[in-house]
Amino acid sequence: MRVLIIGAGLAGPCLAHGLRRHGHEVRLFERDSAIDARSQGYRIHIGGDGDAALRRWLPAEAYEQAVATACAATGGVSMVGPDLRDFVEIPVPPDAAGITVDRLTLRRIMLRDLADAVRFGAGFSRYEVLDDGTVRVFLTDGTTAEGDLLVATDGVNSAVRRQLLPDYSVVVQDSRLIYGRTPMTDRARELTPQQALDGFLGVVGADGRGLALAAQRFRRDPADFGLPAAEDYVMWGLTAPADRYGPDLYDLAPAELLALAERTVADWDPALGALVGLGDVRYVVPAAIQAAERPGPWPTVPVTLVGDAAHPMPPAGISAGVAIHEAGLLASRLVPGAPLLDAVRAYEAEMLDYGFAAVAASTRRHTGDFS
Question: How does pLDDT run across 85-99, given as a tens digit for each residue?
């Protein structure tokens, strides 16, 4: 079987490894010009289901390196107000088992053995299903590719989803995010609450502002495994109502975004503004907050969706694990050799149930409800 995957983030490479191990031909197409062409995300948690998929489908050496370079987190989830008083520890939900990693490091590990299968600088333009039931994909570099199945792992703004499901409903919430990271200098360590150094801390204001803080402390330097060296850092994500950030958020330069983020928490405990102000401008990016509404059934075709491409969700630290788990679900349906459309139909039924349960959980957690 020939499988074409759009998007070489985390879910796509996981699926590619699983299928290649069982003799299938896989090609991945990535719109970015290189693996580190733009900010690739920061510290992420991959829950138990996603961790199990990595363990099952990645080569053993790659999984061992992912664990070895994971975050040395020792704490759980805590919440506090902007004055940094009266910290409340949140009971860890059952699905919080797994590993916490630096996203770019994990991606490098996963792609290293797929170099012959990945083409960078080749984004998705459109597809067509041919008379023989195969798929032809038109790419932004002017080339085409043909396969038996097209899989979209191209994220919340999936161009594949827009063609497959043109009436799909995604709600953009009236809040915006600025993501960033601050290098773990001695000063940053002094400014960071211990709860964020050890685990995850949510700072919740009463006016729609919120700040997520979590330290990425590598168990081992990725350089030990032939990857680029990495430094410890504090990841932060600052949510605020859209009108507070203003209409030009997406037009601001990184330094302007960083200054805006620092101003946004200027009336909070001074340590928080100082920590944000020390952020590395190379990693400051704005983002919208989106949530999908579950679609009705659609005809099964040799095109399917995985992760955020199928069900965008508010950021709550679980979407990467969900996408990796779903890549594993798809691999487990395809590998046994069932008729292709039967396998896709069975996968999509599982994926929609699992994915929209995750959307609901993510929506709750984004508002501070970890029940």
Answer: 999 998 766 556 899
Best CA proximity match to 75, nearest among 172, 209, 214: 214
- How much is the pTM? 0.93
Partners of 287 in beta bridges: 177
Q: What count of Cα atoms within 13 Å lies in the side-chain half-sphere of residue 60?
A: 0
**What single string gives the DSSP state of each residue in 157-208?**
T-HHHHHH-TT--EEEEEEEEEEEEEE--HHHHHHS-HHHHHSEEEEE-SSS
For the chain, how many helices (H) and strands (E)?
A: 12, 17
Give Cβ neighbours of residue 300 (< 8 Å, ≥ 6 apart).
Answer: 341, 344, 345, 348
* Tokens, residue 310: 């199928």
Q: What is the gyration radius of the CA atoms in the chain, in angstroms? A: 20
Mean pLDDT along residues 242-269: 96
SS3 62: helix
Structure tokens at 17: 């490894």
pLDDT for residue 306? 98
Separation between Cα atoms, residue 221 and residue 232, nearest integer Å? 9
Residue 83: which residues within 8 A CB-CB, separation 6 or more? 268, 269
Do residues 351 and 15 touch, judged by C-beta distance below 8 A?
no
Q: Is 167 exposed, middle or buried (0-12, 13-18, 19+ CB in 10 A)?
A: exposed
SS3 call for 272: helix
What are the φ and ψ backbone dihedral angles of 246, each rounded to 5 degrees? 90, 165
How many other β-carbons are positioned within 10 Å of the β-carbon of residue 145? 17
Q: Which of 36, 15, 52 is nearest to 222 (CA)?
A: 36
Residue 251 DSSP code? G
Distance CA 13, CA 53 (A): 12
Round the average pLDDT of the chain to a whole number and report it. 93
